[in-house]
Amino acid sequence: MRVILLIVTLFFASCGSNHETCEPGDQRSCTCEGGDKGIEKCNPDGNGWEPCDCNCEINCEGRDCGDDGCGGSCGYCEDNEECLNGICECKYEKCYDNCCDEVEVCYNSSCCSPDCQGKECGSDGCGGECEPGCGAGETCNSEGICEICIPDCTGKECGFDGCNGECPPGCIDGEICNFDGQCEVCVPDCVDKECGRDGCGGYCTPGCSNGETCNIVGKCVGEISRNWIEVTAGDFYMGSPLDEPGRFSNGVDYEVYHLVTITKDYFILQTEVAQGDFEDVMGYNPSHWGQEGTGVYCGRDCPVEQVNWNEAAAFCNAISLADGYEQCYTCTGSGDSVSCEPKAEYTKPNDCLGYRLPTEAEWEYSARAGTTTSTYNGTIDENHLGCEENNNVLNTIAWFCDNSRNKTHPSKLLDPNNLVIYDMLGNVNEWCHDWWQNELSSLHETDPFGPISGNNRVLRGGSYDSEARECRTAYRSSLPPFIGGYSNGFRPVRTIP
To answer: Is residue 246 a contact partner of residue 425, using CB atoms and an 8 Å limit?
Structure first.
């Protein structure tokens, strides 16, 4: 009799394990015959689970986290991320391609933890200042403590006193304060200049008349006409789908197809920067195709080329200064020896409101102008990816190896894209802001602008000597920022406040 009772007890215990309590509405994955995944749901009364439903379909397309439709997950986010509509987004501040933790800020291209422990003033190590800060007449010492500031003008008759003041008596008109704190006569320097600053607080004479501007070498030039196209922020798919003819990969997917969001409207130059415009602003013309009388002359309306990335950035600074906008780059040197870097105070390129080079994403967004084909005039077929004649897609919009006669051409001779922007493909390659990276992210990106350092800067668009496959909107190339080349030019953009 005791044996029978034990069997009955075990039977009911086994049945009970299949009726574990759960929360109505909960669901979990289960395994079907053949190993496929299914989904089972909690009974409405919370007493056990319904039989495994093997008709569900896993759907993780375009998702890197969240429910896969069968009770499982498409992936999991990091602790400082959250899953929004199937995409891992930063919970707190985003810093380039990284997500910062709750107490971190983005500084110098990386996530940084401010540290003011034991300090009442001075730098917090992450671009901010420790509070409460010092009062009038105080200075912050090396330990971050406020102390009375004692002005020091020993041996000085001008210049900074070390306490936010100036040493008396100061310099008179015509004098300048040297590095030793002594006043000396300032000799204005206007050699070969007819306008601009003289180095002593004045301006070189005679100065420019109405309708003229002073260029970077102190010469008056006529008003420069530039046509800017307004581009409205939005979403687009960057890169190329796997079945696009001519798509480039070499063991690495250089044209990853992914969703990108541009958050700020901007202006883009309707044409590539012309030789005449560059010469008027910078005082020289580096172009190979600008040498009149040599058989390779193109003209002032042809795109400037043989400019390196640094020269393009210096030009952007020069027109920002001329038009009264902030400069986006820090540059040293001049001509083809100039060296430029984006200013560190801007977390993203589009935070600067002056002229600058477009990010790779901004360039492609502008070039596509709402299209999704391999060019803004349709998709190039498999039989016309080189220099073949009768390329019905490219011949009307781009100068490339079939129709260019191996040289550049003046702007606006071919059809523009839907935004009325000319020569986004062909004629000359165009420098972009970004450092080169072999493989773009496959995730949804917002205002991407590449890695924080590198060896090469990005070039886009193809040129007069490019094959057709290299004049696709998604095609990418690069060069070191100090190298020019007969086929490399640029066009600036400017964020709209």
So the answer is: no
CA distances to 107, 165, 166, 179, 189 from 182, in Å: 38, 16, 12, 7, 20
Q: What are the percentages of helix, strand and coil residues in the chain, rounded to 5?
A: 15, 25, 65
Helix (H, G, I), strand (E, B) or coil at 350: helix
Phi-psi region of 491 (alpha: psi -120 to 50; beta: other; left: phi over 0): beta
What does pLDDT average to over the chain?
86
Distance CA 52, CA 37 (A): 9
Report pTM: 0.61
Rg, C-alpha atoms of the chain: 32
Identify the three-state secondary structure at position 278. helix
Domains of the chain with CATH codes:
185-223 (no CATH), 228-495 (3.90.1580.10)
- Buried (b) or exposed (e) across 220-258, using 16+ Cβ within 10 A? bbeebebeebebeeeebebbbeeebbbbbeeeebbbbbb
For residues 263 and 32, the model is more confident at 263
Sequential DSSP letters for 99-156 = E--TT-EEETTEEE----TT-SSSB-SSS-B-SS---TTEEE-TTS-EEE-----TT-
Structure confidence by residue, pLDDT tens digits, 419-473: 999 999 999 999 999 999 999 999 999 999 999 999 999 999 999 999 999 999 9
pLDDT digits (tens, 9 = 90+) for 313-362: 999 999 999 888 999 999 999 888 999 999 999 999 999 999 999 999 99
Return the sign of the alpha-carbon dihedral for residues 319, 321, 326, 328.
positive
| Residue 380 DSSP one-character state | P
Q: What are phi and psi of 114, to 5 degrees?
A: -60, 140
Element (H, E) at 184: strand 183-185
140-152 burial: b if 16+ Cβ within 10 Å, else e: beeebebeebeee
- Strand pairing class (266-269; 228-231): antiparallel
pLDDT digits (tens, 9 = 90+) for 264-289: 999 999 999 999 999 999 999 999 88
Contact 285, 221 (CB under 8 A): no
Provide the terminal-to-terminal Cα distance of the chain, rounded to the nearest Å: 89
